[in-house]
Request: fold
Amino acid sequence: METRKVQVTGGSTYTVSLPKSWATENGVGAGTTVEFYPENDSLLLTPQSETDRQKGTLDISDLEGERLTRAVMTMYVSGFDIIRLEASRITTDQRSAIRSATQSLVGVEVLEETTDSVVIQDLLDSAELSIVNAVSRMRLIARSMLEDAVTALVENDDDIAQDVIERDDDVDRLWLVVSRIFRATLRSPRAAEELGVPREDCFDYHSSARQLERVADHAAKISNLAFKLAEIPEAVADALIELHGDASDILEKAMDALVAEETGEATRLGHAALESVLEIDEHTRTIDDMLRELDPVQAQSLGLIVDSLSRSADYGGNIAETALQKAAPRP
Reply:
């Protein structure tokens, strides 16, 4: 840390010098334009950046399959708009992995292909999908997935179960968008300003999006188990429907608290959601007692479903805690 004294020039202008080492490292010199971003009682300074799209190059010679797919996704989340993938010769399997990665990302398409390179580009206008909108869409999809997963189970409907599993990909795509936006706000105060959301709030939305992504994963897990289960006892089905209703209610209250504009309303909803989480444990114990009377194989699968619904409620509780922190007074 370095300190500088503020001086007055011309009788009305405040001036402060910049550390030479920082200026040199960031290409700041005489005539350079810098940008100032007020953030509460802080003032962030950064060299004026170009508006050109961020380009990145990755050597994929030693990457294939899932490792290559993850590498492309990592470049995307890191904030690159144009990604050039290079190798002495790109194999058919590598091209397949690259296509798999682009299909898992929102607004990304292959721009150019040659024998030794593939260029992919993010075509999504960041203004079209804010972090708040992305999280709101995740909320809607995850909630409907959980509801449909339980419906598929109790009605023994494989078509609904398959649809739930496919929708998990939509939530995963949105999760990567949220992560990309969040990382952009950490790198650049300009990104946060253009987004119109304080960086602390971006952290809260990012944390909550992670919980929603996990809820969607458990909905997909329930649907996969539904394929293996035949008709289940009516009493157990009714109990699972009731448990889902409680878990869904917690998620709704928690998300309402997160997006509430009034502090009092956010606090009320957040506490209500957390108090409801405590009641879930008693509910799950009741269902566990019912499962002891069933065939062990069936009971085991249904026990996993009970656990998934209980965990979904816990994730709602995590969102509620985040909402309470977001609503709390800030120093």
About this structure: The mean pLDDT is 90. The radius of gyration is 25 Å. The beta strands are 7-9, 13-15, 34-39, 42-47, 55-59, 82-86, 108-113, 117-122. Residues 296-327 form the longest helix (32 residues).
